[in-house]
């Protein structure tokens, strides 16, 4: 089916509510008779129908009615085509409440309050699977072909080789640039594809000179530095130990970030609204961010046709460096309290694990870009988007996701990011020594881990 994908809203904000309960237990049938009457047979048949319907009910926790909740409702409809008795009890909960409920259940050793299926932010999987493994049902035997998903996304929900999540939304990093500003500098959008950071900076100076604005805007040093780190496949944790010191990719990423700021190529905003305004008002020629930033870019209707999307630059002189990273996203998990894992596995496999038509619908109607790589081959994903000058941006983004290296944060993503934020701030604002700040960051993370 052909659908026009114009200005698709993508979601990054995560708001929700929460609940308890899982699939219903089958009701028993105590009707006994050597020669049942027609009435008793009808009663038994009705009871069996009720049991069957209850057996095919799964409870789901997730957030955002226009994004994740909508996705589950559409998945339910798709699965009901061949399973008419199937039903989802979708309970909308803010993500912080979901995490609190999971941890409370784990610490109490009582998982009976958990749903069958829940949505978890990708960066929380390692922490929770390491500290509270009893929350999850392993998905290795669920029938899903995990090779059909982005490796970068899978790494976030795979712990010690065990899959705990089925990737949902796509967080592939994009470089969105103003094609009109690029052309004003006598350049083409294609010039910015597959560049190194040093090549990108030379091109950027031409764009800046022609338009009198920074080439990039960003919302904080640690985020883009972590994207640079991932693009090189350089894990900050190796064999369970913190690996920031002597991490060549990390040092190069911080050096690159400092150069971008020092030379005015990138403007760094601590205020989110100012960051978004710099794109919408044309006070920056581009941004590097997870693809969910597109919804904010597209809020400026007057800029339709003036944007394009390419992959991010790669680190110079770093072995294994690529032009691809991931920022943000969530994945579906099955809880240890699931009353019918076979049903949950089959439902997830048939929908989020295989249904390209479902992903087409979610793109058009919810702005959810798939992490399921075969979706890029659909007619919907290959349709040009007028806001981006007719570029088939969604096809390109799914293809970007397929190249993202997987890296390991262990259970300490928040600790690592916080420590790196402090290090980067000191390097940029106080001209502190990079090696010293990386060592301080490693000491901080190791101290927090030891507590």
TrEMBL record:
Residues 1-21 form the signal peptide. The keyword Signal applies. Gene3D superfamilies: Periplasmic binding protein-like II. Keywords: Signal. InterPro entries: Bact_solute-bd_prot1, SBP. This is ABC transporter substrate-binding protein. It comes from Waltera acetigignens. The lineage of its organism: Bacteria, Bacillati, Bacillota, Clostridia, Lachnospirales.
């Amino acid at each position: 089916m052909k659908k026009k994908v114009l200005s698709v809203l993508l979601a990054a904000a995560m708001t929700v509510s929460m609940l308890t309960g899982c699939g219903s237990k089958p009701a028993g049938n105590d009707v006994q008779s050597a020669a049942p009457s027609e009435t008793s047979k009808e009663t038994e048949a009705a009871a069996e129908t009720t049991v069957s319907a209850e057996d095919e009910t799964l409870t789901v926790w997730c957030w955002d009615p226009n994004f994740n909740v909508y996705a589950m409702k559409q998945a339910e409809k798709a699965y009901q085509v061949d399973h008419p008795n199937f039903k989802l009890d979708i309970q909308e909960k803010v993500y912080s409440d979901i995490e609190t409920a999971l941890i409370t259940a784990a610490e109490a050793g009582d998982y009976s309050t958990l749903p069958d299926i829940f949505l978890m932010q990708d960066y929380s999987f390692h922490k929770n699977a390491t500290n509270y493994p009893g929350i999850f049902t392993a998905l290795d035997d669920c029938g899903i072909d995990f090779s059909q998903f982005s490796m970068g996304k899978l790494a976030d929900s795979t712990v010690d080789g065990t899959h705990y999540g089925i990737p949902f939304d796509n967080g592939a990093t994009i470089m969105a640039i103003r094609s009109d500003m690029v052309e004003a500098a006598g350049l083409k959008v294609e010039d910015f594809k597959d560049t190194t950071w040093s090549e990108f900076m030379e091109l950027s100076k031409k764009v800046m000179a022609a338009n009198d604005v920074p080439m990039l805007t960003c919302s904080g040093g640690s985020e883009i530095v972590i994207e640079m780190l991932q693009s090189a496949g350089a894990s900050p944790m190796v064999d369970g130990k913190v690996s920031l010191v002597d991490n060549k990719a990390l040092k190069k990423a911080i050096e690159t970030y400092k150069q971008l700021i020092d030379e005015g190529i990138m403007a760094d905003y601590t205020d989110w609204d100012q960051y978004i305004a710099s794109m919408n008002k044309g006070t920056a020629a581009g941004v590097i961010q997870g693809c969910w930033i597109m919804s904010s870019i597209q809020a400026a209707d007057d800029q339709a046709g003036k944007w394009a999307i390419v992959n991010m630059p790669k680190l110079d002189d770093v072995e294994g460096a690529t032009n691809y990273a991931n920022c943000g996203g969530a994945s579906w998990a099955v809880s240890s309290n699931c009353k019918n894992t076979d049903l949950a596995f089959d439902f997830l496999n048939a929908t989020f694990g295989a249904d390209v038509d479902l992903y087409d619908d979610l793109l058009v109607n919810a702005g959810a870009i798939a992490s399921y790589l075969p979706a890029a081959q659909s007619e919907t994903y290959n349709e040009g988007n007028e806001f981006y000058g007719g570029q088939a941006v969604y096809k390109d983004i799914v293809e970007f996701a397929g190249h993202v290296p997987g890296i390991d944060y262990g259970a300490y993503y928040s600790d690592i990011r916080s420590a790196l934020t402090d290090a980067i701030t000191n390097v940029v604002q106080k001209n502190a020594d990079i090696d010293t700040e990386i060592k301080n960051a490693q000491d901080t993370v190791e101290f927090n881990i030891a507590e």
